[in-house]
TrEMBL record:
This is Cobyric acid synthase. It comes from Streptomyces antibioticus. The active site is at C342, H426. GO terms for biological process: cobalamin biosynthetic process. PROSITE patterns: GATASE_COBBQ, GATASE_TYPE_1.
C-alpha cells in the first residue's frame, strides 16, 4: 500500500517551505500518523550525517526530527554543495559523486536523476502513512522546468498535490500566487491544489477579501494564514541567521545567570557551512552571538569562532585580505579564546595541502594550532562520540581534510594550544554538559564573570521549536482539508489559469 503525499512549494526561495513542511510533519505525528519528510534535491552548505554515514541537508534532518524518526539518505537523495559561483559538489544518496557546473547539471545530469528520486520517494511512501515533500525555489522557474526534479517534475511523476506557500511579509503575495499558477502548464496546474499564506501580521479579516478574489481568479482555495512568529527559521538552508532566534532573543534580553554576558563573534567566511554549530551557544542565557566580517568587530568578543567552509583555502585568503587573520593572531598571542570548527580548524593550523578542493597545493595556514592538513579524495562522513573537558560529546564530521596533530593538548579529534581550540566535530556544542564546560573555560580565559545556566537543554529547546511549528499548522490551517490533500490528492476539475487572466 502506498502512503499519502503532499508537495510544499513556494512562490520564492525562503518563502517558508522548510518550516511549513516541518510544521505539517509535527502536526501529523502528533495525530498518530507515521510520517516522513522528503526533498528530492537540496542546494545548501548546511548538511548533516545520518547514522549510516550519509550526508543530507540539515533541513531534512530537522524535518525528520519533527517526524520523530531517524533521518536517512532517502529523504534527500540529491544534495548540491556550492563551491563557487558556477559549480557545486553533487552528493547522491549521501555520497559525493563529483563536481559539476550549473550548466552541466541542468544540461542533462539532473533529468537522469529523476528515476533515482522517484524510487526514493516511492520507498518512503511504501513505509510511511504520509510523506511531506519540500520543493525548491519556485515551481514557476520556467527556464528550468524541462529538467526539474524537485518541484513539478517530482509532483507530476508521483502525482502529488501541491500546496504553494507565499511570504506575505515580503509583499506582493497575491501576484506571486496568481503568477505561479498562471506560468505553469495545464498538466502542472492540475496538481496545484491551493495556497498557504505565511508570516502574516495584523487582522486576518482584512486579508479575506483578497483571498476570495484569488479564489475567483484561480479556482483554488487558501488552506491557511500563518501569523508572523519570531525565531521559527530553524536549520535553514542558507543565510547568516541563528536558528533558534526566538530563544536567543529571550535569553539575551533576560539577565545572565552570572554577572557578565559572553560575546561570541563568528567570522562570516566565504562558502560558510554548518553555521548552525553556533545555535547551541546562542541558546544559552547571557550569550550573544553575531556574525562579523571586519577585524574591529573582534575587539570586544570574548570568543571568536572560525566556522566550517566549503572553500577552506579561499576562506583563508579572505581572512588575510580583510585583516581578520592578523586580528586572530593577536588574540591568540594575548590568550583570548578562538575556536575553529572543521574548515575553521584547518585554517588555524600550520599548513594545508589541497589537491582536491581548491587544487592549490601547499598553502600556509594561520599557524595558531600545531596541525597539518592534507586533503583526501574521499570525504570523511561519521557520527563520532567521545569525551572532552570531562563531559560526553556527540558530533558529526563532514570533511576532505585529514589533520595530523603535532602538539598541544587533545581536544576531541583536534587539539588545544593555549586559548585556541580546534576540532572537525560539527554539533559538539549541542551536548549540554560539554557546552557548559567549554563556556566556563572561555569565560575564565576572557576574564568574564559569566556562569552558564545549569538547566539549558538544547534538545528540549529544539523540541519546543518544532512543537511551535506544529501549533501554527494546527491552529491556523484547515487541517481537515490538508489531510484530504495528503490522503486523496488534488481536488479534481481545478480550472486552467491562462497568463493574463485578471485583465
Amino acid at each position: 500500500m502506498t502512503g499519502g503525499g503532499l508537495l510544499v512549494a513556494g512562490t520564492t526561495s525562503d518563502a517558508g517551505k522548510s518550516v511549513v513542511t516541518a510544521g505539517i510533519c509535527r502536526w501529523l505525528v502528533r495525530q498518530g500518523v507515521k510520517v516522513a519528510p522528503f526533498k528530492a534535491q537540496n542546494m545548501s552548505l548546511n548538511s548533516f550525517v545520518t547514522k549510516e554515514g550519509a550526508e543530507i541537508g540539515r533541513a531534512q534532518a530537522m524535518q525528520a526530527q519533527a517526524c520523530r524518526i531517524e533521518p536517512s539518505a532517502l529523504m534527500n537523495p540529491v544534495l548540491l554543495k556550492p563551491g563557487g559561483e558556477r559549480s557545486s559538489q553533487v552528493v547522491l544518496l549521501g555520497k559525493p559523486v563529483g563536481e559539476m557546473s550549473a550548466r552541466g547539471y541542468h544540461g542533462g545530469r539532473q533529468q537522469r536523476l529523476l528515476g533515482t528520486v522517484v524510487d526514493c520517494l516511492a520507498e518512503l511512501r511504501s513505509t510511511y502513512d504520509a510523506v511531506i515533500c519540500e520543493g525548491a525555489g519556485s515551481p514557476a522557474e520556467i527556464n528550468l522546468r524541462r529538467t526539474d526534479i524537485v518541484n513539478m517534475g517530482i509532483a507530476r511523476s508521483a502525482r502529488l498535490p501541491v500546496l504553494v506557500v507565499g511570504d506575505i511579509d515580503r509583499g506582493g503575495v497575491f501576484a506571486s500566487f496568481f503568477g505561479t499558477v498562471a506560468l505553469l502548464s495545464p498538466e502542472d496546474q492540475e496538481l496545484v491544489a491551493g495556497f498557504l499564506v505565511n508570516k502574516f501580521r495584523g487582522d486576518v479579516s482584512l486579508l479575506e477579501p483578497g483571498l476570495d478574489m484569488l479564489h475567483g481568479l484561480t479556482g483554488r482555495r487558501t488552506y491557511g494564514v500563518l501569523p508572523f512568529r519570531h525565531g521559527l527559521g530553524i536549520d535553514e538552508e542558507d543565510g547568516l541567521r541563528v536558528s533558534l532566534r526566538g530563544t536567543v532573543r529571550e535569553s539575551t534580553v533576560a539577565p545572565p545567570v552570572g554577572e557578565d554576558v559572553l560575546r561570541v563573534a563568528v567570522c562570516a567566511i566565504p562558502l560558510m557551512s554548518n553555521f548552525t554549530d553556533v545555535d547551541a551557544l546562542a541558546a544559552e542565557p547571557g550569550v550573544v552571538v553575531r556574525f562579523v566580517d571586519r577585524p574591529e568587530e573582534l575587539a570586544d568578543a570574548d570568543l571568536v569562532v572560525v566556522p566550517g567552509t566549503r572553500g577552506t583555502v579561499r576562506a583563508l585568503e579572505w581572512l588575510r585580505e580583510r585583516g581578520l587573520a592578523d586580528a586572530l593572531a593577536r588574540r591568540a598571542a594575548e590568550g583570548r579564546p578562538v575556536l575553529g570548527i572543521c574548515g575553521g580548524f584547518q585554517i588555524l593550523g600550520e599548513h594545508i595541502e589541497d589537491d582536491v578542493e581548491s587544487r592549490r597545493g601547499r598553502v600556509d595556514g594561520l599557524g595558531l594550532l600545531p596541525v597539518r592538513v592534507r586533503f583526501a579524495p574521499e570525504k570523511t562522513l561519521t557520527r563520532p562520540v567521545g569525551e572532552a573537558l570531562g563531559e560526553r560529546v556527540e558530533g558529526y564530521e563532514i570533511h576532505h581534510g585529514v589533520a595530523t596533530v603535532t602538539g598541544g593538548e587533545p581536544f576531541l579529534d583536534g587539539c588545544r594550544a593555549g586559548s585556541v581550540w580546534g576540532t572537525h566535530w560539527h554539533g559538539s556544542l549541542e551536548s549540554d554538559g560539554f557546552r557548559r564546560a567549554f563556556l566556563r573555560e572561555v569565560a575564565a580565559a576572557a576574564g568574564r564573570r559569566f556562569v552558564p545556566a545549569a538547566d539549558t537543554s538544547f534538545a528540549a529547546l529544539r523540541e519546543e521549536q518544532l512543537d511551535r511549528l506544529g501549533d501554527l499548522i494546527e491552529q491556523h490551517a484547515d487541517t481537515d482539508a490538508l489531510w484530504r490533500l495528503v490522503e486523496s490528492g488534488a481536488p479534481p476539475g481545478l480550472p486552467f489559469v491562462p497568463p493574463g487572466a485578471p485583465a
